[in-house]
Amino acid sequence: MMGKKLFAATIGAGFMSASVQAADVEVIHWWTSGGEQKAVTVLAEEYNKLGNDKWVDTAVALGENARSLTMQRILGGDAPGAAQFNTSRQFEELIEEGLLLDLTPVAEKEGWKNFIRPSSILNPCMKDGGIYCVPVNIHSNQWLWTNKKVFADVGVKEPHTWEEFLTVAPKIQAAGYIPLAFGGQGWQERHVFDVVMIGMTDEKFWNSVWKDKDPKAASSDKMRKVFETFGALRQFTDAGAPGRNWNDATNMVITGKAAAQVMGDWARGEFAAAGKVAEVDYGCIPGPAKRPSLTLGGDAFIFPKSSDKNLEAAQMKLASMMLSPTIQAKFNNTKGSLPVRADVDLDVADACMKKGLALLDDPKATITPANNYITEDTNGQVQDLVSTFWNEPSMSVDTALSIFKGIIEDAE
């Protein structure tokens, strides 16, 4: 977490890199997989068609690395024109310190509050009457991606709950397949943990932990079952999991080396890029849970302040373009995510995207992500605990519960 003195020292330091021309917008993002690269190319090419301003691409592998670079660049007086974050509290200190461009003029002119849905997507962008980011998509995390042929070969049905997965996984393993394609990186371990938590509980319990920060819920029998189920998944991954990128794990499912993967809806872009057909070659199971629920987060772009009025105009133009109906349809169909506006042409939506849209229309099936309620510091503590528990099977559930309770008690 960054201190105010460090932020204050950078105010007025100048935010534009000397190596980038004033009319160009350098964009830092972490979209580096095959499907993601196709999606970000849509944004870059469409922006370049608008006029003399150009999209200058800076792709950085892994979200935490990209966000860290952005913070360093802003603090060093060498900010990019735009940068990707998640729709969360990740950039709230930048807003508080007055380092981000207020997009309210273009937002009011175009009526963002009228068409961006749900409200939880735009809320993290708003503070003290201003709007400081552009949400470009709606991502949902709770999906189990499956290889149809593997399940057919083994002769078992695709699981729709975690109990069902733990029942069929040994049979899949005995048949010579990896039951669960897994990427051993901190954010992926936390990702699966959250998916298990929602799948094993419900929205009320989720909110009691993350929104209400209730230590009793954090140390309850329900939470114990979450840790037990999460730990039980270890035996169904492979030895090559540590350090594996998420898209490499997705490729294991695409190529039939693994039966399934827990990953967000962005995995759909990898299947599409590989020429696979939804619900024919691969399956997409929301949840897994008896009653599927999806956390609705997504990606957003912030625009650091600049004294260069030409750059500011280019930033406003890019912000507007990202939310146009045409771009929303093109980008999200490629990315695997859902558009933040409902008035776009989704005739090309595949079977998996339609499942997501149906859940999006059900107010009882959508949940606010944990990182909308907790600070980045608290989020990091939870991720560290989850990673330690996953990678050190000797850690007992009792110990994990005790640490988790303490984190939630002190959460901000």
UniProtKB/TrEMBL annotation:
Pfam families associated with the record: SBP_bac_1
Annotated compartments: Periplasm
Keyword field: Signal, Transport
InterPro entries, A to Z: Bact_solute-bd_prot1, SBP
Predominant localisation class: periplasm
Cellular component per GO, a single term: periplasmic space
Family, per entry: Belongs to the bacterial solute-binding protein 1 family.
Record's function text: Part of a binding-protein-dependent transport system for a sugar.
Protein's name in the database: Probable sugar-binding periplasmic protein
Organism: Marinomonas polaris DSM 16579
